[in-house]
């Protein structure tokens, strides 16, 4: 077995939770991460942001650690690290500590996600914290532009909605609705737990000891719910025929700024699609580093932007690829033209053998770096299981990437980067009347 393949075991516990363990003998740390199959795309508009709200609230205390100070001190005193995140499809919590504190880590994480107190006063206080978080993002165009782009690319889908919700939705969310959301979605068969590091004699019995869920499965949980956020998938599946001339081409968000922040790209496909491999190669070639096409042409040769990068965001049923940059308002039109030239270049000329090899080596090297620590391993395992239903060996990923050829790259670019499919989102001193002018640049 190649040394870079992850040695792991996978088991479904009696309570329905998926457990993935990766022993790393003599590794100084352990990481435990749990993902729940609930994110912002599954929320009704009225409750937009409730998954993220709950992610905050669970850190306010539980049956073992009665308040935020006790909760944080339990890990801080060990020199550990912990955090949480909400995505469009998952909510996750993790802890990383020295290997000798495995039991403490599992007890801490288990209590966090199974017995949150959700006290009234903390709900109100954290509501204010999240409202300030919204203000922060609204004042940070580099963060906000991604949401503007997804609103444009995923119209009519909850994927086009901000994970954090809106001020209106957050103000309307009550404690009782947060409690219902917890009961409806935080149950074992809706979760995957991954633990990596020097695990000693870790067994199923110990995991069951620390993860005693209030609800054993979703059936009873859903029966308890009255009017809360729906767990039903709301998937807006856009077909290729939807992406043509009828699609909105440009979306502007007015903000009086010295810079314009833009994302220019196209709707693509699901992360379950095997074409994700050649798309990752395209992303590396186009904007995946300081030697990429976009960085070279936009920054190094013309000095148009400080940052320029490519992004690939794939979800359960669809995805998007884009090139983004922040630049002087007066240089916006020139930058859009230059990015359009890059899409035309890969669409019509494809890539050289040299660029293809460099991109493949870059991807494989990056994957190696993401498999060094217990945190890297646990995150890789839990992400693969919850997204793909299996863990693809590193050696298989490498084999697939190495087999990608120039014709695959060109064919994918021709299919998804045709001018009529490209869309542009911008934040800056631009109004609705400017959209038509910039739409002409995309032809």
The strand line-up of the biggest sheet is 1-2-6-3-5-4
Overall residue-averaged pLDDT value? 92
- The stretches of 5 or more residues where confidence is low (pLDDT under 50) are 219-245
- Strand proportion, as a percent range, falls in 15-25%
Give the CATH architecture of the largest domain.
Answer: 2-Layer Sandwich
Q: What is the CATH superfamily label of the largest domain? A: Metalloenzyme, LuxS/M16 peptidase-like
Q: Count of DSSP helices? A: 17
Supply the number of structural domains. 2
How many beta-strand elements?
A: 11
How would you classify the helix and strand content by structural class? alpha+beta
Order of helices and strands: EEEHHEEHHHHHEHHEEHHEEHHHHHEH
CATH domain topology of the largest domain: Cytochrome Bc1 Complex, Chain A, domain 1
N- to C-terminal separation?
50 Å
Biggest sheet layout: 6 strands, mixed
* Spatial shape: globular
CATH class (first level) name of the largest domain: Alpha Beta
Alpha carbon gyration radius: 23 Å
Helix content bin: 40-55%
How are the SSEs placed, and which strands pair?
Elements: E1 9-12, E2 18-23, E3 29-36, H1 50-57, H2 68-76, E4 81-86, E5 91-98, H3 102-114, H4 120-138, H5 141-153, H6 167-172, H7 175-185, E6 191-197, H8 204-210, H9 218-224, E7 250-254, E8 259-267, H10 276-287, H11 293-300, E9 305-314, E10 319-328, H12 332-348, H13 353-369, H14 374-388, H15 394-403, H16 406-416, E11 423-428, H17 435-441
Parallel strand pairs: 2-6, 7-11
Antiparallel strand pairs: 1-2, 3-5, 3-6, 4-5, 8-10, 8-11, 9-10
């Amino acid at each position: 077995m190649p040394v870079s393949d992850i040695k792991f075991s996978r088991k479904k516990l009696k309570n329905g939770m998926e457990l993935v363990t990766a022993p790393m003998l003599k590794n100084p740390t352990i990481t435990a991460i749990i993902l729940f199959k609930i994110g912002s795309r599954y929320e009704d508009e009225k409750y937009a942001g409730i998954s993220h709200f709950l992610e905050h609230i669970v850190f306010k205390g539980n049956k073992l650690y009665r308040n935020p100070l006790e909760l944080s001190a339990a890990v801080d005193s060990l020199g550990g690290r912990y955090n949480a995140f909400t995505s469009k499809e998952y909510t996750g919590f993790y802890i990383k500590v020295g290997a000798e504190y495995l039991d403490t880590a599992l007890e801490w994480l288990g209590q966090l996600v199974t017995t949150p107190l959700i006290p009234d006063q903390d709900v109100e206080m954290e509501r204010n914290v999240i409202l300030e978080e919204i203000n922060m993002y609204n004042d940070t165009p580099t963060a906000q532009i991604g949401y503007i782009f997804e609103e444009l690319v995923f119209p009519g889908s909850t994927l086009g909605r901000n994970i954090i919700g809106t001020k209106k939705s957050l103000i309307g969310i009550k404690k009782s609705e947060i409690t219902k959301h917890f009961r409806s979605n935080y149950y074992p068969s809706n979760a995957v737990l991954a633990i990596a590091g020097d695990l000693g004699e870790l067994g199923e019995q110990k995991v069951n000891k620390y993860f005693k869920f209030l609800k054993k499965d979703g059936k009873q949980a859903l029966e308890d719910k009255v009017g809360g956020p729906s767990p039903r998938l709301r998937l807006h599946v856009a077909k290729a025929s939807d992406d043509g001339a009828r699609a909105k081409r440009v979306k502007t968000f007015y903000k009086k700024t010295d810079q314009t922040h833009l994302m220019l790209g196209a709707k693509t496909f699901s992360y379950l699609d095997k074409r994700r491999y050649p798309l990752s190669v395209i992303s590396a070639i186009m904007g995946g580093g300081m030697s990429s096409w976009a960085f070279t042409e936009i920054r190094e040769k013309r000095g148009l932007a400080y940052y320029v990068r490519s992004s690939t965001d794939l979800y359960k049923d669809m995805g998007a690829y884009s090139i983004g940059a922040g630049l002087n308002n007066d240089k916006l039109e020139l930058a859009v033209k230059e990015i359009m030239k890059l899409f035309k270049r890969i669409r019509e000329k494809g890539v050289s053998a040299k660029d293809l090899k460099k991109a493949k080596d870059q991807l494989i090297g990056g994957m190696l770096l993401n498999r060094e620590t217990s945190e890297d391993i646990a995150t890789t395992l839990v992400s693969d299981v919850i997204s793909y239903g299996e863990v693809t060996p590193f050696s298989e990923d490498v084999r697939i990437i190495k087999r990608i050829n120039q014709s695959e790259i060109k064919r994918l670019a021709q299919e998804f980067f045709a001018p009529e499919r490209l869309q542009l989102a911008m934040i800056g001193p631009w109004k609705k009347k400017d959209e038509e002018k910039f739409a002409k640049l995309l032809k």
